[in-house]
């Protein structure tokens, strides 16, 4: 059962001169923390928020040593692999609600305070969207991803810190954890044409079966190929989300429309979380889920069919 969602109010990026000119993807009033759903924040807007009051910054870049060399002032580090573990032998499964509550308590995540997540920016946006997906599963208000990430912030010659922040511990609320996930049974029904559209967020090479680390290569039969990187555009030397209208047209051209039940998958749910963020939060698609097991689970089960080549 899906919980009701608020209509996203999105604060999208307006690029500074250091990264080249570009029209802002969308405009809208700044949401209050209470009741807001995940969205984007530009570097300019983040500076404004920091001047107004405390903002919890989470650095989810892959390498902790990159954080040690420099990070946004006030940011604390979180390695994305802290957010998942094997379960029943299958890698990269979600943790329990209690495990996430304990982790968010240690990080100082407070429903009354904005949370801004950033990754490298030119790559690995998927780590930021995965954390936003989990926080959204708790109904956490005021969650934003820094559009362009650390790379854009650094290119604009904004302040960089090496000292660690001192963030007080909190008790994360004991609220239900209801991430929008699809089970293996849900995906099997969709693959059989019995409900929903499957969208593969991996690269075209992995989708076609030319690349991949799993024991079988290819894709789930019937799945549409839409790489998560297709949702980004280059701005200067960095990458930011495309304008909302352009994103909407691109998805609609592939038959991925708001009236459908969309199930996104990838290798291990991170790339799929990028599609989820784009479709559900930025474009307002009402029924989007992530198949957490993704190709890692599907490919290993030799009783399940696979398809190869560039077409569904």
Description:
- By secondary structure, the protein is an alpha/beta fold.
- It folds into 2 domains: 17-155, 3-Layer(aba) Sandwich (Oxidized Rhodanese, domain 1), CATH 3.40.250; 181-300, Oxidized Rhodanese, domain 1, CATH 3.40.250.
- The protein contains 10 helices and 14 strands.
- The chain has a 5-stranded parallel beta sheet with strand order 1-7-6-2-3. Strands 8-14-13-9-10 form a 5-stranded parallel beta sheet.
- Strand 6, helix 4 (125-137) and strand 7 form a beta-alpha-beta unit.
- Helix 4 (125-137) packs across helix 9.
- The longest helix has 13 residues, at 125-137.
- It is globular and about 50 Å long.
- Mean pLDDT is 89; it is low at 1-35.
Summarize the structure.
This protein has 312 residues and is of the alpha/beta class. The chain contains ten helices and 14 strands.
Instruction: Give me the number of helical elements.
Output: 10
Q: Which geometry do the CA atoms define?
A: globular
What would CATH call the architecture of the largest domain?
A: 3-Layer(aba) Sandwich
| Mean residue pLDDT | 89
Distance between the termini: 29 Å
Report the helical percentage.
Answer: 25-40%
Instruction: Give the domain tally.
Output: 2
Describe the secondary structure blueprint for this structure.
Elements: E1 39-41, H1 43-52, E2 56-59, H2 64-69, E3 75-77, E4 84-87, E5 90-94, H3 97-107, E6 115-118, H4 125-137, E7 143-146, H5 149-155, E8 181-182, H6 184-191, E9 197-200, H7 204-208, E10 224-225, E11 232-235, E12 238-241, H8 244-253, E13 262-265, H9 270-282, E14 288-291, H10 294-300
Parallel strand pairs: 1-7, 2-3, 2-6, 6-7, 8-14, 9-10, 9-13, 13-14
Antiparallel strand pairs: 4-5, 11-12
Helix pairs in contact: 4-9
């Amino acid at each position: 059962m899906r919980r009701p969602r608020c209509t996203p109010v999105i604060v999208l990026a307006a690029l500074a001169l250091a990264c080249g000119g570009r029209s802002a993807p969308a405009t809208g009033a700044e949401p209050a923390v209470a009741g807001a759903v995940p969205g984007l924040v530009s570097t300019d807007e983040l500076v404004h928020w920091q001047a107004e009051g405390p903002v919890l910054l989470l650095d989810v870049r892959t390498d902790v040593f990159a954080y040690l060399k420099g990070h946004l002032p006030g940011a604390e580090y979180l390695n994305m692999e802290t957010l998942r573990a094997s379960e029943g032998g299958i890698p990269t499964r979600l943790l329990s609600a209690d495990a996430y509550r304990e982790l968010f308590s240690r990080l100082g995540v407070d429903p009354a305070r904005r949370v801004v997540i950033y990754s490298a920016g030119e790559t690995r946006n998927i780590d930021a969207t995965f954390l936003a997906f989990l926080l959204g599963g708790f109904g956490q208000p005021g969650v934003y991803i820094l559009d362009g990430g650390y790379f854009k912030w650094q290119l604009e010659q904004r302040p960089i810190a090496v000292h660690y922040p001192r963030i007080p511990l909190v008790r994360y609320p004991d609220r239900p954890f209801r991430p929008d996930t699809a089970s293996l049974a849900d995906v099997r029904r969709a693959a059989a044409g019995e409900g929903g559209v499957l969208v593969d967020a991996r690269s075209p090479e992995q989708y076609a079966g030319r690349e991949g680390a799993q024991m079988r290569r290819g894709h789930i039969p019937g799945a549409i190929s839409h790489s998560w990187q297709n949702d980004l555009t280059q701005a200067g030397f960095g990458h930011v989300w495309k304008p909302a209208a352009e994103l909407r047209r691109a998805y609609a051209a592939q038959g991925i429309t708001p009236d459908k039940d969309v199930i996104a998958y990838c290798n291990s749910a991170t790339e799929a979380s990028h599609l989820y963020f784009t479709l559900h939060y930025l474009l307002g698609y009402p029924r989007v889920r992530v198949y957490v097991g993704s190709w890692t689970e599907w490919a290993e089960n030799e009783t399940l069919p696979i398809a190869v080549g560039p077409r569904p």
